Amino acid sequence: MSLKEQITADMKTAMKEKQADRLATIRLLMAAMKQREVDERIELSDADITAIIEKMLKQRKDSISQFEAAGRQDLADKEKAEMLVLADYMPQPFSAEEIAAAIDAAVTEHGATPANMGKIMATLKPQLAGRADMAEVSKLIKARLG
Q1: 20-65 pLDDT per residue, tens
Q2: Mean pLDDT taken over the chain
Q3: How far apart are CA 25 and CA 85, in angstroms?
Q4: How far is CA 52 from CA 47, 75, 97, 108, in A?
Q5: Backbone Cα Rg of the chain
Q6: Is 70 exposed, middle or buried (0-12, 13-18, 19+ CB in 10 A)?
Q7: What is the per-residue burial (b if ≥16 Cβ within 10 Å, else e) of 13-45?
Q8: Which of 24, 94, 135, 138 could be joined to 98 by an S-S link, Cβ 3.0–4.6 Å?
Q9: What is the percentage of the chain residues whose pLDDT exceeds 70?
Q10: Quick one: pLDDT at residue 112?
Q11: What secondary structure does DSSP assign to 54-83, as a single string?
């Protein structure tokens, strides 16, 4: 079952079980997916959908920090609930050891100089996308390179 089919099935289930909050979040995701398909005139792959979900998760994370800073815990809680629903569709994250092994392999391939940072990131992005926080990966690479 593709990710798109799973999301559609979950939307139907949420409708039947009258889970209003979950349904609203899934509909937001479906709308973002449909918008991208219409804009780019493509059929989304699982990787494309994962990228959309990553973007939505990042937006929620930013919103939570802003709402908490403004003292709006009610809105922050709503964003956290949406993050939980969206996180269900993300692949299992890599462990720290798996990330370190991928970094080591990329550094070995391109050389351990700071000038190769871009090449290393370009190699790792397709491997780790959706399964690791790329900002953290970047920090680990910088620490490794020196």
Answers
A1: 999 999 999 999 999 999 999 999 998 899 999 999 999 999 999 9
A2: 93
A3: 7
A4: 9, 22, 26, 31
A5: 18
A6: exposed
A7: ebeeeeeeebbebbeebeeebeeeeeeeeeebe
A8: 94
A9: 100
A10: 83
A11: HHHHHHHHHHHHHHHHTT-HHHHHHHHHHH
